[in-house]
Amino acid sequence: MFSMKIIFVLSLALTVVSAGLLGGVSELSGSELKEAEETLNNSLAKLASGDGPNYKLGKIIKATHQVVSGSKYVYDVELIDGSTTKTCNVEIWSQPWLENGIQVTFNCPDGQVVKKHSA
Ligand SMILES: *[C@@H]1O[C@H](CO)[C@@H](O)[C@H](O)[C@H]1NC(C)=O
């Protein structure tokens, strides 16, 4: 009976801790923002050298990071599309242990595009 209680309390504590680690969305700044920018640039470069789209990063307005099954970055960014600049919401969901485990979703004024690439 006593051990059941311990197990219950422990699993409750574990749930609380993992809920804090997973699922928490944090807005990035400083070196974390820099890392997020590198991640985004890397994805843009991979897609541009693959089947597109061909975007360059203008500037990051806001970036957040969340630990899910893998790692998820969400950005509000200005993307340079040839000679025009558009403001998009970009999500990079990274599961680098999978083949083509990096999924990039562009939500731009002209619609949504979902792409995958390798890590
Ligand atoms: C990301 O790419 C943009 C545009 O090419 C560049 O100006 C910027 O310095 C790059 N950022 C990093 C962290 O490499």
Description:
This protein is α+β, with helices and mostly antiparallel strands. The chain has one domain: Nuclear Transport Factor 2, Chain: A, CATH 3.10.450. A six-stranded antiparallel sheet has the order 1-2-3-4-5-6. It is globular. It starts with a helix and ends with a strand. 16% of the residues are buried. The model has no long low-confidence stretch (mean pLDDT 88). 2-acetamido-2-deoxy-beta-D-glucopyranose binds next to helix 2 and strand 2.
List the defining traits of the structure above:
alpha+beta, 119 residues, single chain, Nuclear Transport Factor 2, Chain: A, six-stranded antiparallel β-sheet, 34% helix, binds 2-acetamido-2-deoxy-beta-D-glucopyranose
Quick take:
The chain is α+β, with helices and mostly antiparallel strands and 119 residues long.
How are the SSEs ordered, and which strands pair?
Layout: H1 2-21, E1 25-27, H2 30-49, E2 56-68, E3 70-81, E4 84-94, E5 102-108, E6 111-117
Antiparallel strand pairs: 1-2, 2-3, 3-4, 4-5, 5-6
- Tell me the fraction of residues in β-strands, as a range: 35-45%
Please give the share of residues in helix. Answer: 25-40%
Major sheet details = 6 strands, antiparallel
Corresponding CATH architecture: Roll
CATH fold name = Nuclear Transport Factor 2, Chain: A
Please count the helical segments: 2
Number of domains: 1
Number of strands: 6
Unique bound compounds = 2-acetamido-2-deoxy-beta-D-glucopyranose
Instruction: Kindly report how far apart the N and C termini lie.
Output: 49 Å
Physical arrangement of strands within the biggest beta sheet? 1-2-3-4-5-6
Mean pLDDT: 88
Radius of gyration: 18 Å
